[in-house]
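Appendix C reproduces, verbatim, an entry submitted by the partner laboratory led by Prof. M.T., so that reviewers can inspect both the input and the predicted structure.
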Amino acid sequence: MFDKFKQLGELKKMRDQAMEMQKALAQEKIEVEEQGIKIVMTGDQRVETLEINGEEQNSLKDVFNKVIKKSQEVAARKLQEMSGGLGGLLGQ
């Protein structure tokens, strides 16, 4: 029984570390500018700025953010399927 409490504590610690990492990544800025196209993206893969020939392309930026989010959801779902969720960690 105490083993499960210890595992839950470790799981919470891992979750807290992941949340801190996510916050840190959100603060990072990556910028690429080539051939009249400028994209600024955060480390957590969110497009902040998309410009073509100096003009902001907000609708294109929004579509990019939607497709990136969907791809992240698919990846998370696949990882969860592969790992069997958290049941194995909790001994269930």
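The longest strand covers residues 29-34. Additional entries are available on request from the coordinating office.
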